[in-house]
Amino acid sequence: MSINSRRLDISAGIIVKRDGTTIRVEPTSITIPDSPVKIVTDEMFDLIPPSHQSVNWGCAPAGTKVCGLLQPNSLVKDSLRVKSQSGVRGTPLPPAAYTVGSEWPLVNSTSNIPHQKVFLDYDVPQRRICTVAINDAGGSKLFIGPLSLGAPSPPDIPRLYTPIVNIEASTFDSQLHDSNLMPIYTSDSNHPKVDSNTVAKTRSKLLMGKTVTIVFVGDSVTGGAAASNSAKAFPAMFTDQLRKQYPNAAIETVMVAQGGTHSDSQFARFQKRFTTDYPDLVIVEFINDVALDGKTVRDRYSRFIRMLQSHGTECIICLPHLCSPSLYGFKPDDWQSVANKEYYVVVTELCQEMKVGLANVFERSKNIKSEGLTPALLLADRQMHPNDRGHQLYAEELFRFFH
Which of 65, 213, 332, 370 is the most buried (most CB within 10 A)? Predict the structure, then answer.
């Protein structure tokens, strides 16, 4: 397999499917489509000089942010047009009236006027992932993923196809190279092991068609931050899979989650909310806790788990995905330092000691190269919040306790 400009050449060969059967691949060539810019027009904007800003960073157009976070290189060069009025008749301001950052899309006024109401036209570069998949007859088909300013999610692949390679391309990629190719060679045996005995009572009630209450306790990830819609957030995807697997059971869910929080505040919220009629299962996720020291994590989580177990409530803790190394002050490509954070070791040990379920999204994200991606391509905002594929990892690892 090789790529020349935007043409992907696939040679004849044999691939092995997850079930062990083989497919004889037919040779072919596939053209990879461009990733067009997103055109923004007439965005209302407050043009402010640096002297009137609380932080001397400048303001950024709304379309250059993901989850409220600035994205580098998110303005197409020379595309910005600042106008005094909206519409095609709006008079452009002279270039000397404002400055634009070269890497970060920060727009500052050069005048002393505190606030100028202006309108912006600009282009935003986009990225997407395309996937080549093979059917059982050996034919190849290209599936095109959604466009995104941040990390794009790969497209959904029908069950009758076996994906073999992802191709990442951005607006700036006029030509593609082998570095754009990400082969897929995963199998179910690569996935972390789960101990379904840790949720035996919940499984039994589901099988008997009884009512089961599940409480999700977490931060912004549990709340669905950066998912393209609420149905793509991992609690919704996991619950939907459970209802399909156990159609006779009545599955009720409760959310105890708030963005920007840690486990201490949400564990306390849970205990205030549930003084009687404890749920059958609690699912915990705190990406914000990864920065905590090991002793704090062990003390806090062990107390919460003991409280749940004293009331007969089962628990699964999600070991979170890898966040951007720069979030913790590491070099941008130092993912190993993130993987070495105390949190991951302590929570893993605690789940083993206290016989609590561990949904190991951490291992999935750390080894995501085998699935044709990188840890960075799971982060919608390139920092910490998972995109749709990232949320899907959580749902998949949780569902493995019940499938």
Answer: 213
Per-residue pLDDT reduced to its tens digit, 270-279: 999 999 999 9
Bridge pairing between strands 211-218 and 250-257:
parallel
* Percent composition of the chain: helix, strand, coil (DSSP 3-state, to 5): 30, 30, 40
DSSP-based three-state secondary structure for 65: strand
Q: Tokens 């699935």 label which residue?
A: 371
Alpha carbons 171 and 270: distance in angstroms, whole number: 45
Q: Are 378 and 367 in contact (CB under 8 A)?
A: no
Q: Give the Cβ contact number of residue 340 at 10 Å.
A: 11
* Widest distance between CA atoms in the chain: 72
Tokens of 96: 């000397």
What type of residue is 123? D
Contacts of 114 by beta carbon, 8 Å cutoff, 6+ apart: 48, 49, 52
Direct distance between the N- and C-terminal alpha carbons of the chain, in angstroms, rounded to an integer: 35
- Contact indicator for 179, 156 with CB cutoff of 8 Å: no
Q: Is 160 helix (H, G, I), strand (E, B) or coil?
A: coil
Rounded Cα distance, 47 and 130, in Å: 38
8 A C-beta contact, residue 110 and residue 81: no
Looking only at the bridges linking them, the beta strands covering 38-47 and 211-218 are unpaired
Q: Which amino acid is at 337?
A: S
CB 32 within 8 A of CB 9: no
| Residue 168 pLDDT greater than 90, yes or no | yes
Token output for 396: 């998949």
To which H or E segment does residue 204 belong? helix 200-207
pLDDT tens for each residue of 221-260: 999 999 999 999 999 999 999 999 999 999 999 999 999 9
Distance CA 247, CA 84 (A): 58
One-letter amino acid for residue 60 of the chain: A
Q: Tokens 């149905």: give the residue.
A: 231
Distance, CA of 389 to CA of 129 (rounded, Å)? 11
CA dihedral 153, 162, 397, 250 (to 10 degrees): 100
* Beta carbons within 10 angstroms of residue 341's beta carbon: 20
What type of residue is 303?
A: R
Q: Within 13 A of 207's CA, how many CA atoms are on the CB side?
A: 8
